Amino acid sequence: MTKKESVNFIINTLYKIYPEIPIPLDHKDPYTLLIAVLLSAQSTDVRVNQITPLLFEVADNPYDMIKLSVEDIRDIIRPVGLSPMKSKGIHGLSHILIDKHDGKVPQSFEALEELPAVGHKTASVVMSQAFGVPAFPVDTHIHRLMYRWNLSNGKNVVQTEKDAKRLFPKELWNELHLQIIWYGRQYSPARGWDLEKDIITKTIGRKSVLNAYYKAKKS
């Protein structure tokens, strides 16, 4: 298959498997999404979805959040990991949203990335899922699959994002990045990978990846 044929095969397969695309992180507005995405760094969506109801019951907007101390926030979010950094980030960005943005989440990559503990991936998720702006947030699943599918060299997430944006149509980015995440979790995980169930990689995967898989199966 040519690269273009591979891309079309991926798109068609993903839309067959995921015609409806669930949003991984529970939220009700841009602010709660921002906090949930921030909490998801080096944690699982399942764990975050267990903790955010406890946090949002106390504070689901920046005005209530700054009434809590950093220690209060840390005590609630401790199970998601990296709680010292994340609690400072949540408290700090809530102050900035009030002081600079009238308590609202800004609708630009630049303004979002200026907030404490908010990197490019978090900003991309918020822009995509809260505001519908085309973005292609790259998480570990997308990074892994773009390499397995021979669409990126796997060197770093910055390059992976550039390659994804170059190869996939812009109008599909917001749905496609979620479809790839779900597919990676269900059919092409890092551990416990069964290539027979992974129709996309089995069909268009990088030869070295496929050879390594079959070699490992034999040993």
TrEMBL record:
Which family does this protein fall into? Belongs to the Nth/MutY family.
Write one Pfam family the protein is assigned to: HhH-GPD
Recorded hits in InterPro entries, A to Z, give: DNA_glycosylase, HhH-GPD_domain, HhH_base_excis_C, Nth
| HhH-GPD domain mapped to chain residues | 39-186
What keywords are assigned to this protein? 4Fe-4S, DNA damage, DNA repair, DNA-binding, Endonuclease, Glycosidase, Hydrolase, Iron, Iron-sulfur, Lyase, Metal-binding, Nuclease
Matching PANTHER family, A to Z? A/G-SPECIFIC ADENINE GLYCOSYLASE/ENDONUCLEASE III, ENDONUCLEASE III
**Ubl conjugation as UniProt keyword:** no
User: What is the E.C. number?
Assistant: 4.2.99.18
Cofactor binding note from Swiss-Prot or TrEMBL: Binds 1 [4Fe-4S] cluster.
Which cofactors does this protein require? Answer: [4Fe-4S] cluster
Q: Name one GO molecular function term.
A: class I DNA-(apurinic or apyrimidinic site) endonuclease activity
**Protein's name according to its UniProt entry:** Endonuclease III
Question: Per the record, what are the reactions this protein catalyses?
Answer: 2'-deoxyribonucleotide-(2'-deoxyribose 5'-phosphate)-2'-deoxyribonucleotide-DNA = a 3'-end 2'-deoxyribonucleotide-(2,3-dehydro-2,3-deoxyribose 5'-phosphate)-DNA + a 5'-end 5'-phospho-2'-deoxyribonucleoside-DNA + H(+)
Q: What does this protein do?
A: DNA repair enzyme that has both DNA N-glycosylase activity and AP-lyase activity. The DNA N-glycosylase activity releases various damaged pyrimidines from DNA by cleaving the N-glycosidic bond, leaving an AP (apurinic/apyrimidinic) site. The AP-lyase activity cleaves the phosphodiester bond 3' to the AP site by a beta-elimination, leaving a 3'-terminal unsaturated sugar and a product with a terminal 5'-phosphate.
Lyase in keyword set: yes
